[in-house]
Amino acid sequence: MRHTYVCLHLWLASFSIAFLPQASFIHYSVGNQLLSTKWADERIQNFINVANVTIVIPAYNEEERIGPTLQSYSSYMRARLGESSKIVVVDDGSTDGTCDLVSGSFNDIELLSLPTNNGKGAAVAAGIDHVCNFHPSCNAILVADADGSAGIENIDTMLEAFINVLEGETATTVRPTVDDYPPVVVVGKRESASSSPARLLLRWGFRMTVSLLAGDLKVSDTQCGFKLFTPSAAQTLYTNLNLKGWTHDVEVLYRACNLFQHTIREVPIQWEDREGSKLVKSPGGVVGISFIMLCQVLWLRIAYEMEWWTAALHQD
Which of 121, 136, 193, 265 is the most exposed, having the fewest neighbouring CB atoms within 10 Å of its CB? Predict the structure, then answer.
């Protein structure tokens, strides 16, 4: 683990560097597998015809931002994904009017309310557990942020990558029986014209340091809040998480890559940073929280290497 000290210095140094060359990451190139737009659209629609897509949205004190997100997501899903698809909002112990807004204004959206604030990872895990237990016909779970930074139209890009993997793994067209699906994870890679240079630089530094601390996780943007899973993958990866806050994404992908060898793909999506980020408003700000997150990533690597967390992974 000698290189971990170098990793932390690299991350801290990224704040004072005006320009750095683009890092080379392993990612999934949609362009290499895209058919014509018409045929790609037909393949997605054919999947939608047999699919039940459920979106899980964790929320903590999101009264001011979640309304437009739910409106756009709900409208798109009704028109594009059909009545069988659902949205589940997991309120993570909010102290504002988030629950009242969701329950009072969106009758077609399920609300799962947790009694206390346990962190974003814990909220997502609770939502996935709810979907897998109460919606057994669901065969694709999308995890998305409450602020709508990723427009719901990005789901078409995600679904195409999802279908490509499923058809490649099963050597046939996608089937409607969820039990037939292999564990698959598709992760969005944020491409944003709205991010400030400082935010982009910090994001780059965090990505680089995570890749050095946690190893090759098959994606460059672990923290992107737009991820698509088969239910089998989601349930396995989110059961008994050790990191329940913002760093949970790294643990989920570490498990997928190193413990279970799930198929992972990364696709570029359009992203627009929103005002009101919880990370920015946290004590210590973005820099302080990012440093804590990197320490948690280091601890994650040590704990799994030493097998301190292996037993917890298999608890019922």
Answer: 193
